[in-house]
Amino acid sequence: MIPLLLALSASPASSRAASMTVLESRRDGLSIELTVSAPVFTARPEGVFYPEVAGFTLSMIDGDLLRPCLVFYVPLPPGADPVFEYDAEAGSATPSIPRGRPAVSPVLTGEGLSTAETFPAVPTSPPPPLFTVEPVRAMGVDLARVTFQPFDGRDYGSYVPRATLNLSWDAVEGAEPLSRTPLSLICPRGVLWWPPSGERSESPFWGLPWARVEVSRDGCHLLTGSMLDSAGVDVLGADPATLRMLTGPALQFTLEDAGETHSPDEVALLVLDGGDGSFDACDSIIFMGRPTCRFEPVADSSGFRLVRLSHRYDLRSTYWLTWGGEPGKRMEEVAARPDSSPQWPGSFLSGVFIELDTFWIPESEHRTGWVWTLLSSGFVSTFTFLSEQVGGPATLDVRLVSAGSAVDSCRCVLYLDTDSLTEVSMRGSGSHSLHLDPVTIREGTNSLRIRTMSGFSGRPYFDNLSVTYPRLPSDAGGVTLYAADAPSGRYSLRLGVEGEGPARVFNCSDHYGVVLLDGVEDSGGTVSLSMFLREGTRIVAARPSDLMRPASIAPASPGRILGTLEGADAVIIAPDELLDAAAPLASMQEGDGLSVELVSLREVYDEFGQGVDDPGAVRAFIGHALDTWDPVPTDFILVGDGHYDPLNRNTPEQDMFPAWVRLRLNDCLDDLYAITTHGQNMPEASLSRIPADTPQDVSLYVSKVAMYRSGAASGTWNNDVLLVADDELGHTNYETTHTLFCEAMADSIIDKSFDRTKFYLIEYPWPAGERPEKPEAREDFVEALCHGWLAVIFYGHGSHDQICGEKLFVNSDIARVKNGPRQPLMIFASCDVGRFDRISVDCMGEEFVNSPGAGAILTVAATRGTGFTANVHLFTTMGSILLDSVSVPVGQALWATKMICSEYQGLRYILFGDGTIELARPERGTEAVVAGDTLFRGRSNRLTAAFPDERNARVRVAESGAWRQYTCLNGTTVIDYLKYGATAFEGRFPAPDGMLDVSFFMPLQSDTGMYGRASALGLESGGSGSDWLEWIPVVDSGGYASDSVGPIIRMGIEGCAGEPVVTGPDPVLEAELSDPSGICIFGGGAGRSILINLDSQAFDISRSFSYDHGSSTDGSLSYPLPHLLEGGHRVIMAVWDGIGNVSRDTLDFTVVEAVQTTLSEFVVYPNPSSGPLCFSFRSSTAGEATASIYTIAGRRIWEDSRNFEAGYCQMVWNGLDADGDAPASGAYIYLLRFEGEAGSDTERGVLGIVRGS
């Protein structure tokens, strides 16, 4: 057996469990024994090798050897500080170390289809200890993450075969045995845990009226009663003393500080109300506002300076105004009457900032990811800025960015107007800040000119310019001035403030405690005062005309989350635009027994970001829910597509739910939302995303979920798993890993009760060309997807819109996948297939989920590059959790995989869709029985199976598989793989009282060998059960059935009767076939297939045949023919029976022009329904659809109308009548009327409503 299969010869889940034995679990500690099975080495074509241990993953520490490691988690009491000790057996010598060099953790290069792993030559990191124990949190529980690495030396010469770990802590009451929770997927069996209990939080918002006031400029702002009233804020008549205003820090959350929170603080107001005790339309409020992008004074060892703050997600900050509660904070009045204090000897700084975000280069620009423009080689680029009231030399901070490799360089010369400033050389990739001081600037327009020298390979960009200069106080109205260049003390000032009305001067050094300077003298446009000043003191002088107006004002009702929500199993977070469309999803999840909270993204921003849009606010909310709710959520579903341009610099497409992109690394990790504890690097809960842009997108997906959860489309496909492997051509021409991974998954990881099918690109021959495509494989793959699968697992190269360099599948093919409701979980163990954060284009992972009425129910795909080494362990682990004997929600399975593998690349994988979905898989049954434990070809055979109750069963029997060898393009590398046998028989039979007893004919054409398989799938509306038997010998012992006559064929066209046969341009071929020796349906050519010849074009339609219920001799097929031109056509069919006899039949028919119809593919699902349902149809024209539901007595209980474009259309009913109540169980009438450009059409029928008891 090949090394990879040896290493994975058992399910990682079962091997992992066998490696850990809990000796004792107590209130004050735990003892666990760890066993290491004999290692098996994997040798890579790159000349490196590393050991594999059953049940262990691989540690991938930069610079260290690849080492088998076992990661598991131990629940701790709240706040525990565990101490650990261990005993380890003496190291055993490692047997059979291969030739080559030990593998150092690989480094990824390239992206998309060109991503490759490279192995560094020698280790640069010291070996890790045998055990590490780290405190972490997950799902509201304190845990110890234990990492056991039995190879703890500088090579693979020896390993520890057995060790005992003892953890101890102070005893705490309240421990319980760990039950079936998501934590049981990552913790050893038999441990105790301390279930979390909720803590009620107080909301500063809940229970009061509020106005949302947004500001986009830095300075003194005015709010009047009239402005508030015009915006719909019901504040007139309020007691002015109760006017209060809150705001947050108006800062971007720090990505690296996972535990960061932003809280609101009250700001001081100046309320001008006339003293009548009532806030009226003519009354006003003055407050200091600051946007998210602004100058802030900073004092450090280099002195006082102004720094520019930026924000990637929001340019406005929010101020919350309330009334009717406790008294509000007012500006303190401090005496500032002019006195004999000396005149201020220093200066007042002001800032100018110019920036234009045009190009997105996050690998090089690490502040916002955006730069202004490329500085073209040999040219001069000019950037102008305006300076007013210049009082001296300025400081220029010029930010340039270079993009390129480590050897690329560039050189730029900077001028201000015609004066030379400096020359800078840059190399590699990164930002370069030039601090130029002093620089003489002129009053008015100044020009920064940058000459880029020729002859260099680097790519320099201009990012931004910040200018700080002393501003004369002679025109200070509404301008923020920063005191500088003088010692602290009391000084006198003279400020020029032109205009009408009273001049007010504010000390804004404390944003939350702004001070009104009282007693200033205002004469002839000059304001005189005396005050205490220090470097950084912020002063604003303003007359009424200088007061800024808010960017927006609106009534608001923040506080629901902190004020009312206390716990849920699952949380759906959606932007306001998608919230209503997501509501039926919450109802469906609740119907499956979950407690669910539906939360608006705006609510999250308001309560945890203080009104500022920021993904950190979502992280803070998730952390709050995990730390304080009871029950603690296990699943968070984000609703909305996202991209890297939330401020719409380069795209008009709305960023519905931010994609959290880490600059420098340029990776996009949704799991960052669920890493809420400082210092932690793994998600604390399951996270999934529905990548919708519109409410219709959400409704389309929710309707798919409704159908999937209902089980109405359940069938044999629920037991089928497709394994898809790329070929050997990629970074090299001898990549064996794709096929070997699928071999391990199919033959070692996935439970034997599932029917597995292998689709290997190596089985398709190479056409001519340097980078040839394989169109036959592409067509076969599309056809295969149309059949429907429980899961499809692809392993190979990929990009955002393509898998395999040979174009096995591209995004445009998704529209050709006509699998209807038979939608799989699709796992892409590949690069970039989940790169959803691009603008103006969707990735393959999200397009499969968004495909209306077809495609996939869920996809797992990477947002960036990933490597073979990590992917093998990630997806063998996930496969063993998800496709083992116990059903687990897909989101929790992926979460547990990331926690167990504890590998950074795992965070790049995202789950598109509703992560609370459990695969609609059959229950694992027992082994079926084949008479004699052998399949005899050319004869009748017998199979028996047992099910819990009476049901129908599908029986599928396969001929023997065989080991094959494939030689790679390099001529020397060989891939050994087990090619499964084709289906020899498939039929449906009753199983009275749960007992199935079937006789079927095993075709004489069957391949013999030791790898036959038989399965019996018991089908029932409440759930299916799978019995199986593999591997079964398939033998030839003679005694063939006596049969010399070919099958009986009756052929026709669907919907056509009589002669001549006339049809439209898209005919469906129908045939009834019968033979006592059965019909041979292997496929693959004459003698083993059902073949047709249509106008000299050949088709193998074997997979379209199915036996009649209860029969193993008679059956039928239905096969859609290609679109045909008008005129005469001929189809010839050839059919072989199980002995090899052949029959042929010919059908002539005529195609005429099709009659135009308005509606097609109409379906209501689920029907019967216990809640929401969907009207799904395809329209040939644009028009309006009206759906209605009536009682049997004719009373209409619901109606809705919507306009649609031509194509696929869906209307969702939320399951409630017009009064918002749930209708009683029973029969109802539905009616759908469509008025379109081509006329009208109507569909009607009976709808069943079934409510739970």
Structure description:
It is a single chain. It contains 13 helices and 88 strands. The chain is mostly beta strands and 1253 residues long. The protein has 8 domains: 3-193, Sandwich (Immunoglobulin-like), CATH 2.60.40.3800; 210-345 and 485-554, no CATH class; 347-472, Jelly Rolls, CATH 2.60.120; 567-688, Rossmann fold (3-Layer(aba) Sandwich), CATH 3.40.50; 711-922, Rossmann fold (3-Layer(aba) Sandwich), CATH 3.40.50.1460; 925-1035, Immunoglobulin-like (Sandwich), CATH 2.60.40; 1048-1151, Immunoglobulins (Immunoglobulin-like, Sandwich); 1159-1249, Immunoglobulin-like, CATH 2.60.40.4070. Strands 27, 28, 31, 33, 36, 38, 39, 41, 42 and 45 form a 10-stranded mixed beta sheet that branches. Strands 54-53-55-59-60-61 form a 6-stranded mixed beta sheet, with helices on both faces. The protein is globular, with a radius of gyration of 36 Å. It starts with a helix and ends with a strand. The relative contact order is 0.08. Mean pLDDT is 93; it is low at 1-9.
The gist of it:
The chain has 13 helices and 88 strands. The protein has 1253 residues and is mainly β. The strands form 24 sheets. Strands 27, 28, 31, 33, 36, 38, 39, 41, 42 and 45 form a 10-stranded mixed β-sheet that branches. The chain has a 6-stranded mixed β-sheet with strand order 54-53-55-59-60-61, sandwiched between helices.
End-to-end span in angstroms? 54 Å
* Helix vs. strand class: mainly beta
CATH architecture annotation of the largest domain: 3-Layer(aba) Sandwich
Instruction: Give the overall form.
Output: globular
**Count of helix runs:** 13
User: Helicity, in percent?
Assistant: 10-25%
- CA gyration radius, whole angstroms: 36 Å
Any idea of the CATH class of the largest domain? Answer: Alpha Beta
Mean residue pLDDT: 93
- How much of the sequence lies in strands comes to 35-45%
How many distinct domains?
8
CATH fold field value of the largest domain:
Rossmann fold
Major sheet size, sense and barrel closure: 10 strands, mixed
Low-pLDDT stretches are 1-9
**Strand count:** 88
